[in-house]
Each structure stands twice: as C-alpha cells, then as structure tokens.
Amino acid sequence: MLVLLLALLTVPAFAYEVQYAGKAGSHPLKWPGGEIRMSVSSSMLEESPNLRGSDRVLSAIRRAAERWEAAAGVRIEFSVSDIGSISPKARRGDGISLITIAQTPENLLLFSGEGSQAAAFTRIFYDSDGTITEADIVLNPFFLTSTDGTPGSFDLESTVTHELGHVLGLGHSRVLGATMFENSARNGLYGMPFTSVRTLSGDDVAGVRSIYGAPYGDKNCCSEIRGAMTSSSGEKNSTSFEVWAVDVPSGRVAASVLTDDQGRYAIGGLEPAEYAVYARKLGGNGTVIRVDEIDLEKKEVVEFGPRSSSEVVSFSGEGVGFNGQLAGIAVPVNAGSAYRVMVSGKGINRGVVVSVASDYFTVEDDSVETINFGGGLYALSFIVQVEPGAKEGNYSIVLTDEKGRSDWVLGGLTVESIKNPWMIRDF
Ligand SMILES: [Zn+2]
Question: If you measure from the C-alpha of residue 120 to the centroid of ligand 1, how many angstroms do you get, rounded to a whole number?
C-alpha cells in the first residue's frame, strides 16, 4: 500500500514581475523584431552547492531557447558575462538581460519571504508601448538546480524553458500540463525522474504565437477566436472567466486565456482546426459551459456572441495525483497503457462521475474509489486507459454531477513520449 502524501509536493514555484513605473497599457509585452540578446552569468557555469552539472548548463539553456524559436518568430542569442546581480526594481534596468544563480544580496532578497519557495524569478522591464527592454532570470540560490536529474533538485532545462516564456512576454497558464503553468515539480515527483515539462504544450505555442506569429511566416498561422463573457445579469463586469479552446477530434487543450476587465477574451495563435470553446467563472464554483464550436480556417478571426453563466457546482476539481502523491502537476501517461490516477478537490465524494474530455481515454467504471482526506478534501482514484493512437498533448479530467454540471481539471493528464513505467498494464 502506497502512503498518500498530503504535504504540498508542488508549490507555485515560479515567480515573475513586470516593471514599469507608468500606467499599465493594453499593449502586449513584446521584444521588437523578436530578437533577444541574453547574458549567461559566469555563476551559472561553475559547480556549486546549489548547482550540479554546470558543464551542461549552456547546452541546456540553448535547448530551452530552441523550443521557443521553433514555436514562434523569435531569436534568442546568448553570451557569457561576469555580472552576477539582477537589475534592481526601478524604472529602468542596466539594459543587460541576465540569467544568473549568483548569491549576491540583490538576488538573495528575491527569495526571502513570499518568493522563498520559487525555483526561479524573472523581472521584466518595458516601455510605455509594451516594448520589452530587459528581462533578468534568477534561479533560486537557496535550492539545488541540476542538469543531471539529481533527485529532489529542480531541472535546469525545465526551469529555464518556463522563465524564457516570461522573458518573451508570457504570463502564467492555467493548464496543468503547460510549461507556463505556475507550479513546478522537483525531480522525483510521482516516482519519475523528470515530471517538469521541458516540451511546449499547445497552450504555450498558441500563447507565444499570439505575440510573435509562427516562425518563417508559416502560412497556417495564426487564427483567432474572440468573444465576451458576461455576468448572469447580462452586464459586462469585472468577474474573470477562464476560456479555453479544445481541439475537437483529439480532445486536446489547444489554448487557454482569461477575460480582461471588460469580460472580453481573444484566443490567438491557433492553427486551422475544429475547436470547441469552454468557459468557467473564476473563484465561485462556476460550472463549465460550452460556449460554441467553430471550424477555423487559415488566418481567420471569428467573434462569438456574448455568453453568460450563473450556475454553480458544489464541488471543485483542484489537483491530480499519481503513485501515492497528490500534486498540482499534470500526470504524464503514455499511449497504449492504463494507469491508476487520482483527481482531488472539494466535495467530489458523492454522485460525481469522473471522465476525460477525449475519446482517447476510457475511465474504467468499476475502478473508481473515493478517498477522504478530511476537511472537505476528497480524491477519486481511478484506472484510465489511454488508446494506442492518443496524440501527445494536454487532456482534461472532467467531474460531472447528476445534473450534468461539471468542473474540469484543465490539462491534468499529459500524453508524453517520455516513458512512464508505472502503468497498470499495456495493451
Ligand atoms: Zn512563472
């Protein structure tokens, strides 16, 4: 019997802030021409108690950058610098975009107090028109970071891939399996060497393409779905909604965004495909509603009419778990195998049915068990079969009550090429 660990195995491990002394505008943050020059601090190239495998740091950083370069029209160049400190909080930085792990007072300050659990921190400087002028990354000097998979350490390549997303102007994603999700796992979570994502998910790719477009002027990129969510009274208000597009044939999460203060959303960076759009009110147990569906053409922009939803559910899906560990990190699975997975949340004990929003997945009915952690926190443990043809990407776990109201754990399962050896069986 595996011991169920309720300790927080993953925390919001990534922190970032944007620095501009003026009024925040509506411009997206962007590097002019998609060209970025960064300096790797020499502190990143020396073996130290908090950095293992330093000889592979430069190649790991290069690979992280190449993922973003392959996804969007950006170029990131690196050189080495003796500078160790991040630019302090101010109107302007020193103009040098740095990646560092040096134990300087300025860097250590970032990880005292609120940011103490963060694996890394990124500070971005930008102008009034949204032009990014500098972005500095600090890896937490109090934690162990490695390039060699050391158990309990943060994987450098995963961490840098995430932070480079901030450097490019992206915020945090709400898709559990996305690189830009705010949580990060140390090596060893779920009994797997690398649980943190190094690859970019559909949501990451759509996000960066919505700013920079596709690389080499890809003719298929990019289409956009726009619309608005309103409160139940029909007025646009400050209630935030989470809105996401699902690729209909596969069920994969294609992209997720939040509404602005007018209730509007724009899901950009999409390839032509058939999409279903869903929405959920944030903070208040709103049920997931299906907004609309569209067969999107190349470089097409469609606008959906306003939608509202006031129905609430008495439960919430919050985390997932695997191998006896509950966490806020997507469970990696392989096509052609079956796994026992957990989904956790408030009030999901009675009459709540678990499924996956994709025909590639089947939840075995008689495998579902309820686990009560006390304090209203429950988990459903279930065996899920992943079809041999399941494509790589993020899939959502759906919890539905007897009235058909549902909550989703967005991207809680991720089909990976990396082997997850802990299957119940192959087929
Ligand atoms: Zn972050």
Answer: 8
Q: What percent of the chain has pLDDT over 70?
A: 92
Q: Which CATH class is domain 213-308?
A: mainly beta
| Per-residue confidence (pLDDT) for residue 237, from 0 to 100 | 54
Provide the 3-class DSSP secondary structure of residue 63.
Answer: helix
CA of 213 to the centre of ligand 1 (A): 22
The CA distance from 177 to 27, in Å, is 27
**Which among 307, 277, 234 is positioned nearest to 408, based on CA atoms?**
277
CATH 3.40.50.1820 fits 11-207, yes or no: no
Tell me how far the alpha carbon of residue 13 lies from the centroid of ligand 1, in angstroms: 7
**Averaged over 405-409, what is the pLDDT?**
95
269 Cα: distance to centroid of ligand 1 (angstroms): 20
Distance of CA 162 from the midpoint of ligand 1 (Å):
6
Query: Taking ligand 1, which is a single-atom ion, which protein residues have CB atoms under 5 Å away?
Result: 14, 16
Neighbours of 327 (CB within 10 A): 24
Least confident of 60-64, 188-192, 395-399: 188-192
Radius of gyration of the chain (CA): 21
CATH 3.40.390.10 residue ranges of the chain are 11-207
pLDDT at 238 > cutoff 70 = no
Task: Give the CATH number of domain 316-426.
Answer: 2.60.40.10
- Position 148 scores a pLDDT of 92
| Range list for CATH 2.60.40.10 in the chain | 213-308, 316-426
Query: Does the pLDDT of residue 231 top 80, yes or no?
Result: no
Distance from the alpha carbon of residue 367 to the mean position of ligand 1, in angstroms: 36
